[in-house]
Amino acid sequence: MFFLGIFIGIFIDMHKPEIQNRSPTLMLMIIIGILFDSTFKIYILMLTYTDIDTKCQLGLISRVVFHYVAFMFILIRIKRVHNVNKIEDELYDATILEVQEDDGTNQRGNGTNNKKKNKIIQEKLEQARMQREERVITKACVNWVVPLAIIGLITNFIPYMMVITPVNEQDVCWFYFLTRSPY
Q1: pTM score
Q2: Angle at 95 between CA 91 and CA 97, to 5 degrees
Q3: What CA–CA distances, in Å, run from 86 to 51, 68, 91, 118, 120?
Q4: Can you tell me whether residue 132 is helix, strand or coil?
Q5: How many domains are there within the chain?
């Protein structure tokens, strides 16, 4: 219920300026990942040991699809906010330098300085465009979600991959995957 309240609050205020520049879509993806991860783990705990196959499969799905992806989006959001703030600071510094030099003290060679400053500003604006939320999410899905899904699929058929993707009640899953016996 707690995650649902946060989700609804962010979704309602998603287009407000104070939320817009804080990656609302990434926040929603993180909350959905954590919500489903928690739900799957509770359901796994409710299953009996006679359903060990289902327990292990849901454990893999929960870990690879929800847990790792939510954690990855947390890190990506931190990096995106940091990069955007850094670009804003650099743009601010570039425009302050431009205003200070345009006060009339340095009129000689102003044309080449303006071209350099405009070029710097355009580069920073291009960097800011590359940090748009949609672009960051697409890049993350291609570079992280697809490989994690492949690792989860391989882990399902090759139990030795559980070294990379630990799951809940891993010892029981190791025994089940190696013997294909619930006992």
Answers
A1: 0.69
A2: 115
A3: 51, 27, 9, 18, 14
A4: coil
A5: 1
